[in-house]
Amino acid sequence: MTLQKAPKFILPLILCACLMLSMPIKANARTLNQDGPGSFADIVDDLLPAVVNISSTQKMDMPEDMPDLPQFPEGSPFQDFFEEFMERRHGMPSMPQASLGSGFVIDAENGYIITNNHVVKDAEEIRVTFQDDETLPAELIGTDEKTDLAVLKIDTKKKLTAVKFGNSDVLRVGDWIVAIGNPFGLGGTVTAGIISARQRDINAGPYDDFIQTDASINRGNSGGPMFDLKGEVIGINTAIFSPSGGSVGIGFAIPSALAKPVINQIIQYGRTRRGWLGVRIQQVTDEIAESLGVEKATGALIASITPGGPAEKAGLKAGDIILEFNSQKVSEMRELPRLVAEAKIDAPATITYWRDNKKATAKVTVGELEKAEEDGLIASGEEKISEGIKVDSVGLSLKKITDTMRRDYAIPPSVDGVAIVSVDPKSEAAQKGLFEGDIIVEINQTPVSDPEKAKEIIEKATENGRSSILLLINREDEVRFLALKLKKDE
To answer: How do residues 150-203 score in pLDDT, each as one tens digit?
Structure first.
């Protein structure tokens, strides 16, 4: 699978996995020395039995005008001909789509197996195959699209080998890792490499915190584990950057510190239960920090507050910068969602924030994200992006003002224009402090109220060779002019 979430100058992001291991294991002293392992063989021998290949078939939507299929005698040459004809006629394959991936056992007694959500998404049937080629059906316990994790369960009298999770937070760049998986459906394959980088944000989801490795990871490795030299799972391989679909030495794994709480929740509840504050946040740029009197760009800026949400009840406001959550520093915006997600629901949390050139604290009762989504209080990032009109030349997504947006962003009825619903964090618009909820009243001194019209004006300025556009911005009923440079098509 290929994710098109990275900027166009970055290679396609391809979902893959690597590693499929499982079983508590002790590192063999003879394989390790100060310079690294002389061989991975002893470690791999103990891990291979816990690795599984995962195959799934997806349910197919049958065309409404699909005619009744005629019955042919077994072995009739007309059967293949007719199936091929129906495929061409109705644009559908004669067999269900199949997906291959990797996984690993984490609980031998209860038969729990971990893999990626994209390996089993929309699956009608899931089967796992062990090292000895025994294949068993698997039950889907639950999934989490936000972290791309899935928990399966098998019912068997077979003696299983399970691996345990290690602590990914202690990893250092340069540490050795081992990966075992099912690349291209070949079966158990072992690769090794080092940790190339940590805390990578690849725009795959709201909780991106990937481990980067140079170990070979390819299609079919998705859902397999990444091991340290103690034989503990410190990552679940999920994606690669590649121009061809094959490994080029840039692979990514979900760290165990992020995966463990999600997996435990799925096993306990059949779904995730994440904490929720009821805020929309954005990165604090140097310009924003200076304008708000903060010494350096740190924390998460509250762009808007959900009415009736935990943050509003605690007295937080748009424009506040959250600096700490439960005594844990928020150095970057993307750190806050994970801290809140892992917080105990319906329990108090302490927030340190910046307002009016000074620090302050507030007590907030953490809500439940999934319940807020069910109640329609928030929308996923994908829904917001799909609803907005993207204007790449200025890094903005625009939308017509709705009653809901007037409520969420506190937009007065007298204000007309188009609303900014997302800002490219790498754009000049972000650097100059624009964020969700800002209203563009005029573009080049022309009033706008329709996002398509706004995009047309900007595109026309680009075609006419203009290097920048002038926006009139309304924020909380205060207006100001802002010039933005136009990004030229390459």
So the answer is: 999 999 999 999 999 999 999 999 999 999 988 776 778 899 999 999 988 876
* Residues 266, 219: Cα–Cα separation, whole Å: 26
Give yes or no for a contact between 250 and 227, defined as CB atoms under 8 angstroms apart.
no
Same domain, 27 and 128: yes
Q: Which amino acid is at 412?
A: P
Q: What is the sign, positive or negative, of the torsion defined by CA atoms of 388, 389, 390, 391?
A: negative
Nearest one of 160, 129, 132 to 52, comparing CA atoms: 129
Is the domain of 184 the same as that of 237? yes
Domain end call among 220, 240, 272: 272
Could you tell me if residue 74 is inside a domain? no
Structural domain range at position 187? 1-59+96-272
Tell how far CA 291 is from the center of its chain: 32
Q: Which residues are the active-site residues?
A: 118, 148, 222
Task: Please list, residue by residue across 63-98, b when 16 or more beta carbons sit within 10 angstroms of its beta carbon and e when fewer do.
Answer: eeeeeeeeeeeeeeeebeeeeeebeeeeeeeeeeee
117-131, 175-189, 380-394, 466-480: which range is least confident on average? 380-394
Alpha-carbon distance of 41 to 52, in angstroms, equals 18
Same domain, 362 and 390: no
Q: Quickly tell me which residue has 């709201």 as its tokens.
A: 206
Q: Which residue has the tokens 């892992």?
A: 342
- Residue 369 CB neighbours (<10 A): 23
Give dist(CA 331, CA 319) in Å, integer: 17
Tally the domains of the chain.
Answer: 3
Of 344, 374, 404, which closes a domain? 374
Q: Is the dihedral of CA 182, 185, 189, 192 positive or negative?
A: negative
3-state secondary structure of 325: strand
Quick one: 318 and 367 in the same domain?
Answer: yes
Shared domain check, 261 and 192: yes
